[in-house]
UniProtKB/TrEMBL annotation:
InterPro entries: Na/ntran_symport, SNS_sf, YocR/YhdH-like. This is Transporter. It comes from Acidaminobacter hydrogenoformans DSM 2784. Belongs to the sodium:neurotransmitter symporter (SNF) (TC 2.A.22) family. Keywords: Membrane, Symport, Transmembrane, Transmembrane helix, Transport. GO terms for cellular component: membrane. It holds the Pfam family SNF. It is a multi-pass membrane protein. The keyword Kinase does not apply. CDD domains: SLC6sbd_Tyt1-Like (cd10336). It is found in: Membrane. It comes from the Bacteria.
């Protein structure tokens, strides 16, 4: 019958290796790299943080990304079923990702909407404002009850549009255009920033590690950043990898994606810090760094609106290639489990996340006083998403692979039955079995405030 024929249709797949690399790197590169990384670096002491971040990325990040890729490609179905195929209980790792995806998508889309607004505003003269008015301007915009919802809607619609088109005609096609654009814009902006007067001060502050600043807290911050930035722990990468064929070299791909992700974060720092120092601003300004400090810098620069426009377009593109990976995760499950059409599944998840996002947006304004567990709605979502759900998902996936799946099967899958060799393949399993769980438990305890460092 029709149902059966539909079931037997081959799943959509990434058409090329490069297409998959762009899609996965697109998922990784986003607010995490361009908005979060610079301000976390700014508040954690500069160069020392950068060094620790790179160590965590290489040791933990690459391994966990490889865990998700491996589970996805071996399962060849939505994340929940991919986990279930390894151990029955492990479907709960997938369900955790499924629910977190709604939370992530809602607030990710709200903040991404801000970047769309800032792109348009830069074009039409955000730079008419004096530098010291940027804070008020930002505050007035995000607390408005209506305006941010419009941009949240535009951004969500774009995300849904791409996902309705599917894997090869949607995700692969669009990330293949957007990622190279992003790299070009990045390089132009780095060039502009590094040639500003006194740029060197910023570069020095940013890239000279002052080892006396490496505290346990810096390690924790760096690890959390690696999780968020690489999109691991929510099974988004499991989902993407489920659309891969057997030939793909997963160890190489996870290394390339991690390197691209770190490169974009490092370049974002090279845009922001030279500019911030050149204009005598504060690198440790926190989350407002990109929306308040940077526009203030642009406002004082020749051709500032042009560079401001380029920067926020860059950020919006990076957001879009990430948000589609968040949306695809639950959509793939709804399609395969409930036989929804791709269109209906995408619209359904997009609509629910949009409504949740309204609450997130209100929490910057009219619902500013609403708190749960002592946190506003945005903070609650961000805290649950980044500090609880991602580490928990990553921990569970590492335990599943290290302690249940077992070395023989896991390594056979990672190495395409022994045809791929090399140091990543060799150290991967012991790192996943021992190092990753221990380190995540440490982050976790400290985030819950149980471990005071
Ligand atoms: N990695 C994305 C970023 O850096 C965020 C993200 C997290 C995407 C989890 C998917 C899953 O912005």
């Amino acid at each position: 019958t029709a149902e059966r024929i539909k079931d037997q249709n081959p799943r959509d797949q990434f058409k090329s290796q490069l297409g998959f690399i762009f899609a996965a790197a697109g998922s990784a590169v986003g607010l995490g790299n361009i908005w979060r990384f610079p301000y976390i670096t700014g508040t954690n002491g500069g160069g020392a943080f950068v060094l620790v971040y790179l160590i965590c990325m290489l040791l933990i990040g690459v391994s966990l990304l490889l865990v998700e890729f491996t589970i996805g490609r071996s399962g060849k179905s939505n994340a929940i079923d991919s986990y279930r195929k390894i151990r029955k209980w492990a479907k709960w790792i997938g369900f955790l990702g499924f629910f977190s995806a709604f939370i992530f998508l809602s607030y990710y889309s709200v903040v991404s909407g801000w970047t769309v607004f800032y792109s348009i505003q830069s074009f039409f003269g955000l730079n008419g404002l004096a530098p010291d008015q940027m804070g008020n301007f930002f505050g007035a915009f995000i607390s408005d009850p209506v305006k941010p919802l419009l941009y949240h809607g535009v951004f969500m619609a774009l995300t849904v549009f791409i996902i309705i088109k599917g894997i090869s005609q949607g995700i692969e096609k669009y990330t293949k255009i957007m990622m190279p654009m992003l790299f070009v814009l990045l390089i132009v902006l780095v060039g502009r920033s590094m040639t500003l007067p006194n740029a060197w001060e910023g570069i020095k502050w940013y890239l000279t590690p002052d080892l006396s600043k490496v505290t346990a807290g810096v390690w924790i911050a760096a690890l959390g950043q690696v999780f968020f930035s690489l999109s691991v722990g929510m099974s988004g990468m499991v989902t993407y990898a489920s659309y891969l064929n057997e030939k793909e070299n997963l160890p190489k791909t996870s290394l390339i994606v991690s390197l691209m992700d770190s490169a974009v974060a490092l370049l974002a720092g090279l845009i922001i810090f030279p500019a911030v120092f050149s204009f005598g601003m504060e690198p440790g300004a926190g989350p407002g760094l990109v929306f308040i400090t940077l526009p203030a810098v642009f406002a004082q620069m020749p051709l500032g609106s042009l560079f401001s426009f380029m920067f926020f377009v860059l950020l919006a593109i990076a957001c879009l290639t990430s948000s589609i990976s968040i949306l695809e995760m639950p959509v793939s499950y709804l399609i395969e489990k409930f036989k929804l059409s791709r269109m209906n599944a995408s619209l359904l998840v997009g609509a629910i996340a949009y409504v949740l996002g309204i609450a997130v947006s209100f929490s910057f304004g009219i619902w500013g006083d609403v708190t749960f567990f002592g946190k506003g709605i945005f903070d609650l979502f961000d805290y649950f998403g980044s500090n609880i759900s991602l580490p928990l998902g990553g921990l569970a996936a590492a335990i599943l692979v290290g302690w249940f799946w077992g070395e023989k099967e896991a390594v056979a899958e990672v190495s395409n039955n022994g045809t791929i060799q090399g140091s990543i393949v060799k150290i991967w399993f012991p790192v996943v079995k021992y190092v990753v769980p221990i380190v995540i438990v440490l982050i976790f305890l400290s985030n819950l405030g149980i471990l005071k460092i």
